[in-house]
Amino acid sequence: MSAHPALREPVFIRPADRPLETPLGAAINARYLADEAECVRELIAAARLAPEQSERVRALALELVEAVRGNRTRKGGLDAFLKQYDLGSREGVILMCLAEALLRIPDSDTADKLIADKIAAGNWSEHLGSSDSLFVNASTWGLMLTGRLVRPEPEEMRNPGAVIARLATRVGEPVVRAALKQAMRIMGHQFVMGRTIEEALDRSQEGDNRNFRYSFDMLGEAAMTGMDALRYLGAYSQAIARIGAHGTAASDESAPSISVKLSALFPRYEFAQRERVLAELSPRVIQLVAEARAARVALTIDAEEADRLELSLELIDRVLQAPASAGWSGFGLAVQAYQKRAPDVLRWLIGRARDTRRRLNVRLVKGAYWDSEIKRAQERGLTGYPVFTRKPNTDVSYLACARLLLDAGEEIYPQFATHNAQTVASIIVMARERGRRFEFQRLHGMGEELYAEIVGPDKQDLPCRVYAPVGAHEDLLPYLVRRLLENGANTSFVNRIIDERLPAQEIASDPISQVEAFGEIAHPRIPLPRALFGAERQNSIGTNLADGAELTQLAQRAAPAIAAFWHARPIVSGRELDGAEVPVTNPTHGDENAGDVVHADEAAVDAAISAAAQAQEDWNRAGAVRRAEALEKAADLFEAERAQLAALAVREAGKSIPDSLSEVREAVDFLRYYAAQARKDFAEPLRLPGPTGESNEIRLEGRGVFGCISPWNFPLAIFTGQVAAALAAGNSVVAKPADQTPLIAARAVKLLHQGGVPPEVLHFLPGPGSRVGARMVGDPRVVGFAFTGSTETARRIQKQLADRPGQLATLIAETGGQNAMLVDSSALPEQVVADVALSAFNSAG
C-alpha cells in the first residue's frame, strides 16, 4: 500500500467527526468491563458495616423474614405463584412460553397448536394442593382445565395430557383455548395495575393500596419508527395529565410519578446515533419534564441496557441544565446496581446535582437485563462483562451504592427498589443512623408480604412506592417475561423468603459473608467472553462500540488504512506479479478508488497450480500441529490489525463499521477453529473398533491442491474460512477472491504467509471468474473446490468438473444467498421487524 494524493477522505469513524470519548465517559467507564473480583473487593470495603451495625441488620432482617412467614395469608399472590412455578420446573418454563405468546396469537389454529404443544408436556397435578395459596391452587386447576369443565380420573391426574385430549374431544378446542387465554389474562392481571391509566389510578385507591405511593409505567417497548415514538410521547403526555388531575400530593416526595423509557421516545436510541439522540430526544424529555412539573407529577427515567447508559446520562445532564427543571425536586432516574459502573455513575450524578443545584431522585435497582448483558458480551467477544456474574456480588454492590446515596446529602433523594429483606434491613439501619429521608419501591404484585411489615405507623413507618405497569395485556408480554426471568428463578429472593424449607437465618444472611465464602468471586461456570470455548480455542476479540475510549482507539488505529491507497497483485510462490492496474472502487462513493488490482492471467494460474502441487506433500507431512500453529499465528496477526482490516472492509466492500468488525472476528474464529480441528482429527490416527487382537486405525491426510473461490459479501471471513479449512487438512491452496474485493483478500494472504504458511503452499489469484476461475476448475491437478456464491455458478463448476478427465473432484458449494423468512402470529412484532431489517441489509453495505 502507498499514499495516494488524489484520494479524498472516505467515511469512517474519525475523532474529527465528534468527540468519541466524552468527559462523562471518562468519568464512568473505567470499570465498564473491569475484573469482577477486583470490583467486588472494593465494593465489600465500601459496604461493610461495623460489627454492632451488622448485628442490628441481622436481627431486623430475621424479624422481617419470620414475620413474612408467620403472617402469610391463604390468599397468596404472585410471589406464591412464582415459587410454585419457578423456572427450575418444566411447568414454569411452559407458563413463560405461553404467557409470552398466547395472547398475541389472533388465529385459532396456531393458538390450538401452541396449547397442545406446551400444556400437554407439563405435569400439573404435581403442583395441585402443594401450595397453601388459594390463588396458586385455583390457577393450577385452571391450567389443568379440570376445575369446572371435567372431573379427572385418578390415572389422568398422573397424566394431564390425557385430560387435555379428553377435554378437547368433549367440549371442543375453542373452549380449551378460551380457558387457557383467560388463565393467562388472570396471570397478567397480577402483573399489570390497569389496562388504562384511569383504571390503574382507581385501583391505587382501593383498600390497602392507599398506603403506597405509585410510579406508573406505560407498557410498551422500544419505538421502531418515528410514528411509534410520537405515539409513545403522546401516551406519556396524556398519562401525566390524568395522573395530575387525579389529585395532588402533600410534597414532591410523596407525589405520584411516571416512569419513562427513553427507547420508547426515539427509534434510534443508540450510541452510534449520539448527535441525533441529543438533538432530537432531549427536547422530548424536557417537554415531558415541564408537563410533569406543571401537573405535580414526578418523572423518573428508566434504566435500560448497558450500551445506553452513557447516552442516557448525557440526556439526564441536559435536563438538569434546562430551565424546565430549575428548582424542581420531582425529576430522577434509575441506576442498576448489577453494573460494575454503578458507583461511578452515582458519584457523577451526585456531583452534577450539586453543580446544577438540583435535587435528584435516584431509584436504585438491581437490574432486569442480566441474561441479555451476559449473552451480548459473549457474542461480541468483549474482554469482560458489564454486570456481575453472581447474585451476591450484585447484592454487595447494591449495599455499597445505597451507602453512597445515603451519604450524598440533600441533593439526592434515595429510592430503594428491592424485595430482599436483608437489603431492606441494611438500608433502614444505615438511613436511621444518618437521619435520612428515603423511600422503598417494589413491583406491583410482588413483595407485598414483605412490605406489609414496612409500611404503616404500627410497623417500620416507612414509605414505599409501587412500580405499577399500565397497559393492555397484549402489551404486557415483554415486561412479563422479564419479571418471570428475574423473579421466577429458584434463586430469587421472592422465592426464597416464602420457601420454609430454607432456614430464616440463611435467608437473612449478609451477602458480604456469602461472597467471602466463595472460592472464586466471579462465577466459575460463566467464563469470560474470550474464554467462551474453553481450552479448545480462544474467542475472537471484539470492540465495545458503546465506549467512546475504545472508539477513539479504533479510529486512531484505522487511520493509516483510511489514508492509504491499497494494491492487490497475483501472489505466486510469494512473488507479486505485475500487470495492467484496474481500479477498485468504494461502492458507497463511486468517485473514490480504494486501490487497484492486477488480474492474474492464465500463465499465473498454471504456475500457481504447479507450485502448489509440488509443495502439497511436504505441507501434509509437516503435520497437523505445525499447520495449526501457522493458522493460530495468523489469527493473532489478524487481531493485531483488526482496525485496519475493518477499515479496508468499509472502503472496499461498503460494509458498516459493526459489520466490518464482525467480519474480522469471524475470520479469526475460522482460523482458530480449523487449527483446533486439525489438532483433533489430523494429529493422531483415529482408532476404530475391531476384534480382539486386531488394531484398526484411520489416518486423515490432505488430498492435494484445493481451489477456493469466495464471494464479495464476506470478503475476508469466507475467503479466510475456505483457505484455513483446506490448509488445516494438509492441502495446498490456490485462492481466488471475488472480483469486487481483492484488496482485503490480498492482505489476508500476506498475513497467512507471515504467520507461517509457506508461500509455495498458498497462492493468490485475483481476477474475473470467467477467466481465472474457469482456468482453475479446468485443471485436473486441482482435486477439490470450496465455492460460495450463486447457485447458477456452482452448477457450471459442477458440470465443468464432471466433464474434465481424471479423478472426480470434490466440490463443497454454499449457494443461494436469498432466504425466505417465515413468521407466524406467535412472534413478537418488534423482534420480527428488527430481524427482517437485519436479514435484508446486514452485509449489504
Question: How do the helices and strands line up, and which of them pair or pack?
Answer:
Blueprint: E1 2-3, H1 23-28, H2 36-47, H3 51-70, H4 78-84, H5 90-101, H6 108-119, H7 134-144, H8 154-157, H9 160-171, H10 173-191, H11 197-204, E2 213-218, H12 226-246, E3 257-260, H13 274-295, E4 298-301, H14 309-321, E5 331-336, H15 342-356, E6 360-365, H16 370-380, H17 391-406, E7 412-417, H18 421-434, E8 439-443, H19 448-451, E9 464-470, H20 477-487, H21 493-496, H22 504-507, H23 511-517, H24 548-563, E10 564-568, E11 571-572, E12 575-576, E13 581-585, E14 593-598, H25 602-621, H26 624-640, H27 642-653, H28 657-681, E15 686-688, E16 696-698, E17 705-709, H29 717-728, E18 732-736, H30 742-755, E19 762-764, H31 769-778, E20 782-789, H32 791-803, E21 810-815, H33 829-841
Parallel strand pairs: 2-3, 2-9, 3-4, 4-5, 5-6, 6-7, 7-8, 8-9, 10-14, 17-18, 17-20, 18-19, 20-21
Antiparallel strand pairs: 1-10, 11-12, 13-14, 15-16
Written description of the protein model:
49% of the residues lie in helices and 12% in strands. It is α/β, with parallel strands linked by helices and 845 residues long. It has an eight-stranded parallel beta barrel, surrounded by five helices. Strands 19-18-17-20-21 form a five-stranded parallel sheet, sandwiched between helices. A four-stranded mixed sheet has the order 1-10-14-13. Helix 12 (226-246) links the parallel strand 2 (213-218) and strand 3. The chain starts with a strand and ends with a helix. The model is unreliable at 1-16, 133-152 and 167-172 (pLDDT under 50).
